[in-house]
Amino acid sequence: MSISARERIFVALDTPDVAMAIALASRLRGLVGGFKVGLEICTAVGAPQVVRALADVGGSVFLDLKLHDIPNTVAGAVRAVCALGPAVRMLTLHCTGGSAMLRAAVVAAQAMPQRPLLLGVTVLTSLDAAALSGELQVVPSVTEYVVHLARMAQACGLDGVVASPHEVGAIRAACPDMRIITPGIRPRWAAEGDQRRVMTPADALRAGADYLVIGRPITNPPPIIGDPVAAIDRLLAEIEQASTMQ
Ligand SMILES: O=C(O)c1cc(=O)[nH]c(=O)n1[C@@H]1O[C@H](COP(=O)(O)O)[C@@H](O)[C@H]1O
């Protein structure tokens, strides 16, 4: 069964205010596939509280904790996330934690009665080629490094990866069965902000992304677009228009 564009969108609720996040999720539920909560809100109020509140609203939860630590510590955190129950559909870990860390996460998750999809974050969409090679001293190109990390994630038993839409084609060719989740989504009318490797929603879907993570263009759209519901309508209309022009 093919998934609609609407269901492929996860809205990033980046706020420390859980009441505001839940109010927005209640308003947008049914209009999108689910909600991504991460470091900001989980640090402010705690992941269990956020997950429970979103589950009460009925939203599908993408828990973006970007785990990155020694294998024993990550395994413990993964068990704690699994214990939060089926509301958590996806969980992120940094691929750069290494294969021992990724394998420990998979083993820990598989030993639990239920588990979310485990997704490896490859190269953050806020990093460009200059930052990767200059600051981080990574020698391969962004795409080569992302594909290398995706292959490693696949070999360790992860279910998918997070990468920019620019790398989707190369990941798909190297790891056909991995789910690919793409942040760095920017409609033409939205500010790039701190994102660097960006693409429009229509182009990201055309590139083959399974899910799009979209934050500020929906949660804080420019005045010409209106409110979050209007932003979603506009995004979906643009996706529809692009697909009829193919
Ligand atoms: O793991 C992520 O979700 C993530 C990985 C990445 O490489 N880039 C990235 O932007 N994200 C997250 O995706 C969301 C993007 O938000 P906006 O830039 O507001 O659309 C944020 O919540 C980021 O934490």
UniProtKB/TrEMBL annotation:
Q: List positions binding substrate.
A: 14, 36, 64-73, 125, 186, 195, 215-216
Q: What is its EC number?
A: 4.1.1.23
The record's similarity note reads: Belongs to the OMP decarboxylase family. Type 1 subfamily.
**A single GO CC term, please?**
cytosol
Quote the InterPro entries the UniProt record gives: Aldolase_TIM, OMPdecase, OMPdecase_AS, OMPdecase_bac, OMPdeCOase_dom, RibuloseP-bd_barrel
Pathway listed:
Pyrimidine metabolism; UMP biosynthesis via de novo pathway; UMP from orotate: step 2/2
One Gene Ontology term of the molecular function aspect: orotidine-5'-phosphate decarboxylase activity
Task: Specify the enzyme's EC class, one word.
Answer: lyase
Keyword field contains Lyase: yes
Q: What does this protein do?
A: Catalyzes the decarboxylation of orotidine 5'-monophosphate (OMP) to uridine 5'-monophosphate (UMP).
Domain (Orotidine 5'-phosphate decarboxylase): residue spans on this chain? 8-235
User: What does the UniProt keyword field contain?
Assistant: Decarboxylase, Lyase, Pyrimidine biosynthesis
Q: Which SUPFAM superfamilies match?
A: Ribulose-phoshate binding barrel
In Pfam terms, one family for this protein is OMPdecase
Q: Which domain of life is it from?
A: Bacteria
Query: What are the positions of the active site?
Result: 64 (for ompdecase activity), 66 (proton donor), 66 (for ompdecase activity), 69 (for ompdecase activity)
- Protein name per its UniProtKB record: Orotidine 5'-phosphate decarboxylase
What is said about its interaction partners and assembly? Homodimer.
- Entry keyword annotation includes Lyase: yes
The biological process GO terms on file are: 'de novo' pyrimidine nucleobase biosynthetic process; 'de novo' UMP biosynthetic process
Catalytic activity reported: orotidine 5'-phosphate + H(+) = UMP + CO2
